[in-house]
Amino acid sequence: MTEKGADSWFVPYWKHLLQPECENKPEWGGIVCDGTVEVRRIAFWGMPANFFGMRMKILQLDRSTESSMNDAAFEEYIHSDSNYSLVPFKDKKDPSSAWAMPFVTNHRYRIHWESGLDFDSMKIEMSERWQIED
To answer: Domain ranges in the chain?
Structure first.
């Protein structure tokens, strides 16, 4: 169905999911990834109330991307909102009062919140490995 073979993935369009193993398919309304990667849902929750309603920002930050840029280009890359997935706060998800997003495994990301608020606790929950039963 994805035209990428067995164990491939179809995920909604989010900028951080455009990894080398994945291809944007705007005509399908999402992104397809080949079977060499897995996708997991990660939820961030348990934050102080002053984070509620704030967007979370996710940036692709693989070491190869970072090392290919000089300092000025890297600073421009991490400060441009056009390079980020801007994730809305969801009050009615499981877990509630959280941000939950898919991530392509085996890649590195930069995650932060719009206001850069300080906090001393957070909970992270990753979906279990999805398995197809025979």
So the answer is: 38-126
Q: How far apart are alpha carbons 51 and 41 in whole angstroms?
A: 20
Instruction: Provide the whole-model pTM.
Output: 0.84
What is the C-alpha separation between 11 and 39, in angstroms, rounded? 8
Q: State the virtual CA torsion across 57, 60, 63, 67 in degrees, nearest 10.
A: -90
Is the separation of the CB atoms in 19 and 36 below 8 Å? no
pLDDT digits (tens, 9 = 90+) for 3-13: 888 889 999 99
- Split at pLDDT 50, 70, 90, the class of 134 is very low
Q: Is residue 106 left, alpha or beta, with left meaning phi > 0 and alpha meaning psi from -120 to 50?
A: left
CA distances from 117 to 49, 52, 54 (A): 11, 11, 10
